[in-house]
Every structure is written in C-alpha cells, then in structure tokens.
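As a warm-up, study this chain.
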Amino acid sequence: MTKPRNSDWERAMRLLRPGWNSYKAKPITEAAIQAMRKLLAEKPQVSPLVDGGLQLEWDEAEIAILPNGMTRDDAALGAEAQP
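Now compare it with the structure written out below.
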C-alpha cells in the first residue's frame, strides 16, 4: 500500500460531508486541516523519554510514543487546545 501524499489526504478530508460515518459525524473543519498541514510541514524535535519511549515536539503540539508503541498526545495529558 502506498502512502498518500499530503494533497491526497487533504482532498479526501475535504470531501467528507456531514454523516460521513453513517451516523452524525461532522465534516472536517478547515482549522483541523490547517493544523495538520502545519504539523506535517514542520520537522518535530525528537527526544528520548526516561521510560524508554520517544517524544515528538512541535511549537504547538507534543506526541509521546510510549515504550509499547502506543501514542499519547498533549491533549490526552490535559493540555488545553490551541485556537
């Protein structure tokens, strides 16, 4: 399976309409698309974690990769979302 290019994922997300999951899913917001574009465009700083995991850090977001391969983002840690 080939990895989609940035324009491919963006186009696919923009095509999603209300109820895209057959229930009451909302369409993807422009703010969410712009935030993802920014994260994908910037190279994160990678740091080791004391528990054997890794941390990816951008100016406005952090994602921890736990030793078991699971991820935890700054929102899951209780950080407030940035507008």
